[in-house]
Specification:
alpha+beta; 5-stranded mixed beta sheet; 5 strands
Length: 80
């Protein structure tokens, strides 16, 4: 199963990529995918929280990923 991952903001700085294609062996939930991402990119642990969106919609932990989904890693935003 192929998944495209887009990194935004500081997450792209931490993983030194803007976009990667990952191959997964099985269908997994967003919660499982978050764990997988942190195993592949341990630097993401430097961000305390970040949202994941699937195909341009914010995803809860229960959402199951499908082949060819696009997952965006969206770090917290601050500013003024």
């Amino acid at each position: 199963m192929n998944i495209t991952v887009l990194f935004f903001g500081i997450s792209s700085d931490l993983v030194t990529e803007n976009k990667v294609d990952l191959t997964l062996d099985k269908t997994i939930s967003i919660a499982e995918f978050r764990t997988h991402l942190q195993e592949v990119y341990p630097a993401l642990e430097n961000i305390k929280t970040y949202a994941l969106a699937v195909n341009e919609a914010y995803a809860t932990d229960e959402v199951l990923l499908k082949s060819n989904d696009v997952v965006a890693v969206i770090p917290p935003v601050s500013g003024g």
